[in-house]
Task: inverse folding
């Protein structure tokens, strides 16, 4: 199904992303080979100029990747009009084996780009650019990721056949028996687990924010705290995705048997899903970002910046978490108190 | 003074807008051409969206399952008696016959579609028919507006069509379909089943389709399967299949159109790249002075980004608005022939504009994102002007 506006748009945005990252990669290769901060040669001055280009390109790449993610979900939703049996994005993504891997890869891409920009932000705050080699080595990883993304996308769109009958979300996410189900056995305790973990993460983020506001004094207690928080955020991200699918989405639809993480993105539900997923991703990203920053806290030239960054990042995570929990909880409370339609 | 990230962006945006306002001519041509390109893409997208929408709305009145008999890959007539065999399938609410065919009018070279409906089923023709007394009396017909115009009735309510043997069959006009349904009813004449048979030269118990309505919509596919087992050699169509086929055809056509437009887009992006690369002496001076004043390379790149962003936003709004007018007022005159139509009777279509966020996302992806990507490297280039260029 290459000849659909959505397919063409997806292909276009991938080509643009490849173009941006290829250009940045050529800079990265030159920087890794020739970078010499002590030199006054023209090559070094050119390279310093080019690092600005590369960083701008990757920032564009991040935004393009986010756009591509939104585009993929919207495209899958639109494909469901054409594919027999599909009623929303779930069906279209399950129409062949490449749909969900592509979605996960795109989400991973957003995080990968984001971490690069995080490194870059840390780097340019110090005059000597201590992280130049690290960040450009990391940049080289983005290209294979993007190529894998493109290959998967070509496979997904190519294998998308309007004649194949796929499943609708009512079948896939139903907690009943039989059929292909993504959520085979939802743990009964998912709601308490979700709220417990959310409260824990809020508390830990607040602690990290407080502790790192004061400078100086490194050592293992801080390191452990940040790492534990990072792992906690990763776990929370997973639990939250399951909870959205299994619990919260059906309150938004006001239909107890409709569990679907994609239908909440539709206009019928005021696009509330975009706010939910955006706040969740921001929270998880900032949470994990503190671990990335902590990785460089040991370097003398970066200690002050990382400390400030971790403190601020923990605050961002806390705010995003509050927004996220509020957005998923309000429809549930409304449903519980006003009753279903 | 130390600014936070957002304040910095706002200040640079402020500067960018002021510099655009000071020299409005510099970006005028590029904005205009960009708006034109966006207009083309957006019109295409909107026409497709409203065509899909019309097809969706109108197909709601179609029967859930249609059964047609095939011999040697072609559709042939069935007998009224065949309906009894379908009736054995459990879960069917109602079965009714339908007669349809094409009528070639030698006078104007057009093909009319003739549909004959059972009197009991005619009451279900609305929602888009008001003021027509149902069921139709013998010899009465409802026609689409374009067809009525083509028949050139003037004030008369009686008209005749030629049978196959060139004898005349006269009809009384009971009413017309509204313009909103022109996409399906433009060439349509609906009449009683007996009159349709008479005009099309069919025998008294012949029918073209068996229409089936199903009690439980969730069972449509199962029942369709059962019918094809009971009546081998038939083609069983479900409404959902027809709807998806329509959607697929429109998607395919609009995708094909988009590919054609990609050439125009590519040409524009090359132009934009070229324009942004050619640094005038004034721009070099401006950059150099800003650098002397303490602006960083990133600040200049951000400035160029906001300039490009302002141009893109303006062009996007202009283009999308023009496209909207083109679709609503101009009835998409430019693209209609590509997206629909195979008969002389198609043209008179009133498009209901459908504004969906998803269409804007597509238009945005097709136009603004490539523009930003095409201008980023020139923007960086212009930002690397050394500060001493101002005094050289």
Result:
């Amino acid at each position: 199904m290459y000849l659909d506006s959505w397919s063409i748009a997806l292909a276009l945005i991938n080509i643009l992303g490849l173009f941006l990252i290829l250009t940045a990669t050529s800079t990265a290769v030159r920087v890794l080979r020739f970078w010499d901060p002590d030199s006054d040669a023209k090559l070094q001055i050119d390279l310093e100029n080019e690092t600005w280009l590369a960083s701008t390109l990757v920032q564009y790449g991040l935004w393009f990747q986010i756009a591509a993610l939104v585009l993929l979900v919207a495209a899958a939703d639109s494909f469901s009009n054409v594919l027999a049996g599909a009623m929303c994005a779930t069906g279209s993504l399950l129409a062949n084996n490449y749909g969900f891997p592509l979605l996960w890869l795109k989400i991973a891409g957003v995080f990968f780009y984001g971490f690069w920009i995080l490194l870059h932000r840390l780097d340019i705050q110090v005059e000597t650019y201590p992280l130049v080699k690290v960040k450009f080595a990391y940049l080289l990883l983005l290209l294979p990721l993007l190529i894998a993304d493109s290959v998967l996308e070509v496979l997904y769109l190519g294998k998308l056949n309007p004649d194949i009958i796929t499943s609708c979300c009512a079948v896939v996410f139903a907690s009943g028996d039989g059929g292909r189900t993504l959520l085979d056995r939802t743990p009964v305790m998912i709601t308490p687990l979700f709220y417990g973990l959310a409260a824990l993460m809020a508390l830990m983020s607040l602690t990290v924010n407080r502790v790192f506001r004061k400078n100086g004094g490194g050592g293992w207690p801080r390191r452990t705290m940040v790492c534990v928080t990072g792992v906690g955020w990763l776990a929370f991200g997973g639990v939250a995705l399951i909870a959205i699918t299994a619990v919260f989405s059906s309150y938004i639809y006001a239909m107890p048997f409709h569990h679907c993480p994609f239908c909440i993105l539709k206009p019928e539900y005021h696009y509330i899903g975009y706010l939910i997923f955006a706040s969740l991703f921001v929270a998880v990203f900032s949470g994990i970002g503190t671990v990335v920053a902590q990785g460089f806290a040991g370097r003398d030239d970066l200690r002050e910046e990382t400390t400030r960054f971790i403190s601020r990042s923990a605050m961002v995570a806390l705010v995003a978490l509050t927004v996220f929990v509020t957005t998923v909880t309000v429809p549930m409370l409304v449903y519980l108190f006003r009753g279903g339609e | 003074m130390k600014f936070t990230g957002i304040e910095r962006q706002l200040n640079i945006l402020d500067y960018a807008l002021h510099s655009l306002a000071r020299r409005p001519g510099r970006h005028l041509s590029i904005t205009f051409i960009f708006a034109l390109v966006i207009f083309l893409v957006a019109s295409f997208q909107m026409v497709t969206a409203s065509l899909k929408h019309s097809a969706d709305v109108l197909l709601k009145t179609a029967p859930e399952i249609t059964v047609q008999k095939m011999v040697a890959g072609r559709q042939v007539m069935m007998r009224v008696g065949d309906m009894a065999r379908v009736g054995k399938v459990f879960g069917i609410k109602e079965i009714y016959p339908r007669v349809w065919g094409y009528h070639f009018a030698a006078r104007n070279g057009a093909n009319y579609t003739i549909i004959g409906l059972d009197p009991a089923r005619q009451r279900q023709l609305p929602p888009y028919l008001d003021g027509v007394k149902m069921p139709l009396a013998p010899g009465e017909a409802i026609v689409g507006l374009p067809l009525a115009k083509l028949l050139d009735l003037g004030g008369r309510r009686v008209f005749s069509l030629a049978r196959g043997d060139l004898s005349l069959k006269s009809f009384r006009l009971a009413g017309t379909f509204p313009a909103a349904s022109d996409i399906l009813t433009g060439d349509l004449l609906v009449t009683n089943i007996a009159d349709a048979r008479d005009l099309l030269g069919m025998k008294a118990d012949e029918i073209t389709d068996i229409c089936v309505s199903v009690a439980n919509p969730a069972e449509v596919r199962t029942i369709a399967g059962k019918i094809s087992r009971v009546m081998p050699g038939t083609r069983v169509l479900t409404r959902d299949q027809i709807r998806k086929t329509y959607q697929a055809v429109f998607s395919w056509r609009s995708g094909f159109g988009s590919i054609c437009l990609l050439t125009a887009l590519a040409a524009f992006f090359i132009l934009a790249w070229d324009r942004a690369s050619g640094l005038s002496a004034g721009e070099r001076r401006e950059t150099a002075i800003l650098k002397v004043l303490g602006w960083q390379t990133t600040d200049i790149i951000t400035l160029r980004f906001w300039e490009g962003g302002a141009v893109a936003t303006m062009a996007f709004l202009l283009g999308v608005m023009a496209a909207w007018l083109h679709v609503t007022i101009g009835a998409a005159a430019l693209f209609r022939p590509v997206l629909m139509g195979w008969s002389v009777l198609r043209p008179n279509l009133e498009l209901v504009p459908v504004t969906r966020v998803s269409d804007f996302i597509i238009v945005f992806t097709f136009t603004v994102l490539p523009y930003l990507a095409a201008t980023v490297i020139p923007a960086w280039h212009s930002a690397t002007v050394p500060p001493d260029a101002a005094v050289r």
